[in-house]
Amino acid sequence: MKIATRVEKVPPSVTLAISAKAKAMKAEGMDVLNFSVGEPDFDTPKHIVAAAKQALDEGKTRYGPAAGEPKLRSLIAQTLSKETGLDYKSDNIVVTNGGKHSLYNLMVAVINPGDEVIIPAPYWLSYPEMVKLVEGVPVIVTTGADTGYKITPEMLRQSITPKTKLFVLNSPSNPTGMVYTPDEIRALAAVVVETGTLVVSDEIYSKIIYDDVKHLSIASAHPESYKYTLISSGFAKSFAMTGWRIGYLAGDLDIIKATTRVQSHSTSNVCTFAQYGAIAALENSLDCVEEMRLAFAKRREVMFELLNAIQGISCLKPDGAFYMYINIAKTGLNSVDFCNFILEEKQLAAVPGQAFGNDDHIRLSYATDLITIERGIQRLEEFVQSKI
């Protein structure tokens, strides 16, 4: 039977292939060190788990509103209003099955066949594939270390055409961990407003930033940018709730209504009792988030210092998230070969940069313990030195 053309355009995930291979090797008893995982290695905080258990005990197991539990939508709106200084209401929020789902719903709701979507590279690997699945056209704008892997206002302006429908912004970034400065965000917002370009700001890592770095949402970066901005976020990274699948989209009322309509005909509501865990996350102290952030900060320092001591590779120090994006060009290997070889020879699992739009980079996650980090970087050094 013939598969739909839009699906055939989407390639198999190289990251899943590497991950499957690593799991198979580990099942055979090999000492595989996994740096490919994009999720916190902490347990979900106990008060969040307790709230979900209580919801189960209280019978909160039935269908709920397609847009999400009213109390959760209200709390998300209040949180965003406090963080951005803007006036978000419950009607401006739709709760989704994870942050990824919020982005896909948005693509379905606003992208017509042939519409262009501007995506800076390196990018999170699902952005262009989502665009292809709704028959849009990904417009990839390649950035480099010279700009901190960030798109500039000039790059953005030059990429906008009459077919442009959406600009995807991700800060803090997966895979680079870089954060746009407030001034950089304001400059991008000026282009968005000037050109009337819709932007979705993926802010899933906004609570995981380091040093004196400041996160500014593009929604509040310009007096008129709010009306052009959709914020995509969720609870997965900051609260170690990756498997709970609780995300959200916030912004223009008509677009939120449209994405809710899409959701009502695809997944209906988000898991009801899981939403009560998210309610507890927002109603209680953020001390648990800070504890995880501090642990990530320490790991970042250790990994960055160890990586910088390896001749033949280079990386910028990330401002947020929990990834190192490493230039491996001097090894002469492309990223897929590099990751396959290092997995086979050193039992170290990494993600090839090809998945993010840069075939001369790899991504390592430091969402793992310090001992594993030290052992893993030692193996990386041995591998690199054997190739240069």
Automatic annotation (TrEMBL):
This is Aminotransferase. PANTHER family: ASPARTATE AMINOTRANSFERASE. Its cofactor is pyridoxal 5'-phosphate. One of its GO terms (biological process) is amino acid metabolic process. The keyword DNA-binding does not apply. The lineage of its organism: Bacteria, Bacillati, Cyanobacteriota, Cyanophyceae, Oscillatoriophycideae. It is an enzyme of class 2 (transferase). It holds the Pfam family Aminotran_1_2. GO terms for molecular function: pyridoxal phosphate binding; transaminase activity. Signal peptide: none annotated. Residues 31-380 form the Aminotransferase class I/classII large domain. Keywords: Aminotransferase, Pyridoxal phosphate, Transferase. Its EC number is 2.6.1.-. It comes from the Bacteria. Belongs to the class-I pyridoxal-phosphate-dependent aminotransferase family. InterPro entries: Aminotransferase_I/II_large, AspAT/PAT-like, NHTrfase_class1_PyrdxlP-BS, PyrdxlP-dep_Trfase, PyrdxlP-dep_Trfase_major, PyrdxlP-dep_Trfase_small. The keyword Protease does not apply. It comes from Planktothrix serta PCC 8927. Coiled coil: none annotated.
